Amino acid sequence: MEPIIQINELNKEFKGKKIVSNVNMTVNKREIYGFLGPNGAGKTTIMKMILNLVKPTSGEILVLNEIISPTSYQYLKKVGSIIEYPVFYDRLTAKENLNLHCQYIGFPHKGLIEEALEIVGLKEVEDKKIHEFSLGMKQRLGIARAIVTRPEILILDEPINGLDPIGIKDMRKLFLLLKEKYEMTILISSHIVSEIESVADTIGIINDGKLLKEVRMEEIRKENTEYIEIDIDHIGNAVRVLKDQLAVKKYEIENDHIIRIFDQNISQSQINKELIINEVTVNRIEKKQHNLEEYFVNLINGGSRHE
Ligand SMILES: Nc1ncnc2c1ncn2[C@@H]1O[C@H](COP(=O)(O)OP(=O)(O)OP(=O)(O)O)[C@@H](O)[C@H]1O
């Protein structure tokens, strides 16, 4: 894996208030990096620092092996982005908007405009005025604008926010196309796990300006496939039995009566039997599937997982 964005010990303060704290992050070439965190976690601020729109208080950002300084701008030719909501001229058509953008940035290859519209699925409506566009169409046009120069890196701030289920599905397809066919590296922020769970290769989970975890999706899928959830009366006794009699190693205490067991080599019936023998009342025992949503919520809330 080849790092394409590398962030080291990044900090940002606004008027003495820490917004980003000691963030270390690596986005690898040709991956989709899902940047997950609740509203106000600091995602946009970090994206703006990568794009040199906001200056870090301290720390280092490397993009395509170049250390970003306040005067770096050449690298931006290789980076496309949508930060916050994409804005267009409402009375102009989709194509006219992209034409204007290319003139503005001095990009001469007009042929690529048609191609960008084709890629995002807006070729047929290129002559429609923007005020007739839906939110999903505007988001796709934003992406067309961001990819018209064929950047190596695409930075998208909440591109799925507010879209309907079909719009979300189309967007996911588009991300995969851009990664696979056009070999782009994509950094996407979101506060809704399910929006990017299926397309992300890596996720970085951020809360309160701190990167809590950076992990490959395949690891999460492997780690969190199935678990057994038990509802018991006596948490202390149950934990003792699980550890001493069954050598359970990976478990999580959800609350004062629910435990989740992640060890894959211990069966539901073994657990049930051992708890009953040891006089722990089992109210419920069942197999469940862990999903990223729970993983995310658990991390944000500082869950009590034992390994
Ligand atoms: N220019 C600024 N001056 C002061 N505070 C700021 C500024 N920009 C951002 N902040 C604050 O920094 C924090 C992080 O904001 P940021 O927009 O980076 O979060 P986010 O994770 O992108 O959330 P959202 O999805 O709501 O945009 C917020 O508390 C915000 O109010």
From TrEMBL:
Claim: Protease is one of the keywords in the record: no
An example molecular function term from Gene Ontology annotations: ATP binding
Top-level taxonomic group: Bacteria
ABC transporter domain boundaries: 5-233
Coiled coil location: none
Keywords: ATP-binding, Nucleotide-binding, Transport
Keyword Transit peptide: no
Pfam family, one: ABC_tran
InterPro entries the UniProt entry points to: AAA+_ATPase, ABC_transporter-like_ATP-bd, ABC_transporter-like_CS, P-loop_NTPase
Family statement drawn from the similarity comment of this UniProt entry: Belongs to the ABC transporter superfamily.
Protein name (Swiss-Prot/TrEMBL): ABC transporter ATP-binding protein
Protein's organism: Metabacillus fastidiosus
